[in-house]
Amino acid sequence: MTVPGIISDMDCSSSNDGDSDVTSSGCRERKIIVANMLPLQAKRDTETSKWRFSLDEDSILLQLKDGFSPETEVLYVGSLKADIDASEQEEVAQKLLEEFNCVPTFLPHDLQKKFYLGFCKQQLWPLFHYMLPMCPDHGDRRMLGLDYESKRGHIGLDYFGRTVFIKILPVGVHMGRLESVLNLPSTATKIKEIQKQFEGKKLILGVDDMDIFKGISLKLLALEQLLQQHPALQGKIVLVQIVNPARGSGKDVQEAKKETYLTAKKINEVYGSPNYQPVILIDRHVPRYEKSAYYALAECCIVNAVRDGMNLVPYKYLVCRQGTACMDEALGVKSDTPRTSMLVVSEFIGCSPSLSGAIRVNPWDIDAVAEALNTAITMPESEKQLRHEKHYRYVSTHDVAYWAHSFAQDLDRACQDHYSKRCWGIGLGLGFRVVSLSPSFRRLCIDHIVSAYKRTNRRAIFLDYDGTVVPEASIIKKPSPEVISLLKTLCDDPKNTVFIVSGRGRASLSDWLAPCETLGIAAEHGYFIRWSKNSEWETSPVGADLEWKRIVEPVMSLYREATDGSSIETKESALVWHHQDADPDFGSCQAKELLDHLENVLANEPAVVKRGQHIVEVKPQGVSKGLVAEKVLSKLINGGKPPDFVMCVGDDKSDEDMFESILTSVSNPSLPVAPEVFACTVGRKPSKAKYYLDDAADVLKLLHGLATATSSKPRFVPDIQVSFESTA
């Protein structure tokens, strides 16, 4: 636990009483970094028995502050590597806060050990590295089942109506820290020792933790294959494998260590000699200066992990191969000497995408790794130099300070106006989510909208169908007699222009809504539209080419047959695959895969693939509900009947186009009076709408309130036809 009350002491140094002109804006900006371990070294003084602490300069947490402004206060929260007695915790906590800006969490040693060595390394680590997805890995967007678009180097995932930006930016290394180690006299001395030890041989370097995922044994097998296939290299190459102390424990780690030693022994027995060992294992603590010396001398560095996170070994290798002026002087190397390096990296490590000049390999393919090592060793010096320059330029400019600065900028952008928003809990169980919404987003008060309805004279009303006037979960999709009666009442008021805007086909909507003779209908997201029952259906000229349906239908049929409970809805302009009645998990997974499949086969077709609530739909490009709202409002405005009341209600993502289009249309400065706008989504979720109603039952109450306030005068049907031709 942490000691309570100590962070409050770090408030602004300037007291801000009632008579002071100092405001909260004068406080220093503060960044709080929370991590498993604090960037501290702890040691008990043998003479005083007091704890002595020092900063761990190698900790990346400490290096992050280089990316913040000098005025930024950085506070660290985490555990200590030492077990502090309960009687000393308060004193230690105060000392760490005052001297190092660190807030320790004093976890019992036994609990911390069980968490890290037990649960983390033996449960979570293997699970997260080997958990197989239910459907193929086609990227984050497809795995999460979310729509995305690329925005300025980010992946923008549409999640619950909000956009979540995922930025791929590997953390870098601290250039100054590495270069300071290279400048040490001990480093130059060690380099000379290694040069003498391996004189006439090419050095291949591996630096890995002893872990089941690091692929050390696979690396050794690849070296064995290399020596077998290329006998001329025997006696000329040496693999130095530095084994860092294992951060985990258990049977798996012990077996990996045993296998590593047996494989190395076998290779040395077969291909070695009294004066030559092709494999040298260094299984001990290696000081920074010694490790840097090996980095500086290695012709090639290989990182062969079968699964890994962000591995910084290649970055450190590149910096050390570049060297420093001080190191060159100590070794008698000319400053203009060409620098070279070669990297063989697993495609499964985090830094692989950032190293375009590296030779990428699948660590399980022993032959391919062996051939990659041969290519790296025998590559012309000019090519090695070009690759090194390219890599070093990237690593030196994308260091840890750059990463921290970039991350801080993204964090500030994500938290912009955060405190002015309200948080809502959405969903139940594993589907529960917390989302932040604008404070202006609120439940639609029926009395408020009825009041506005009564005092206006030209009203435009847009209603979605499924999930809005008809409950989403309802098996019977035909509107109830009550809905028909309410719609008919609204349509009979000559002040109203009412439209049902739906993704359903025109035949179904025309049949179900037949009693409402003056109701406008936009079917199939606006591909078909008519002003009233007596008007002709107009077809959108956009997307007249529907040849793509011949491609989509057999693909959807395959998924329908493979997914019990799914079905295909064939519309005149679109095809929809429904999985509402399928198993929730399997149906969702199949929808993700179908989405990816269709996007690939329709890449060059005039069609778009969209995922909605329990559906995957393919429809023509350029057709949307937003276009319907825009055209209807434009006709009313251009016909001299600009609306002074606009209401739009919908529950689906496709309805967001309507909300946006309406808000854009009514903001036209040419309008004599700005209309009262009520954009309302069904369900509490992030939306472009300003209001929400909980469900279709609330929508029914809303329509009932409007119908009650409606005049029942005979309706005059204006001679207005909606055209899809561009309006002036």
From TrEMBL:
GO terms for biological process: trehalose biosynthetic process. The keyword Glycosyltransferase applies. It holds the Pfam family Trehalose_PPase. CDD domains: GT20_TPS (cd03788), HAD_TPP (cd01627). GO terms for molecular function: glycosyltransferase activity; trehalose-phosphatase activity. It comes from the Eukaryota. Keywords: Glycosyltransferase, Transferase. This is Glycosyl transferase, family 20. It comes from Corchorus capsularis (Jute).
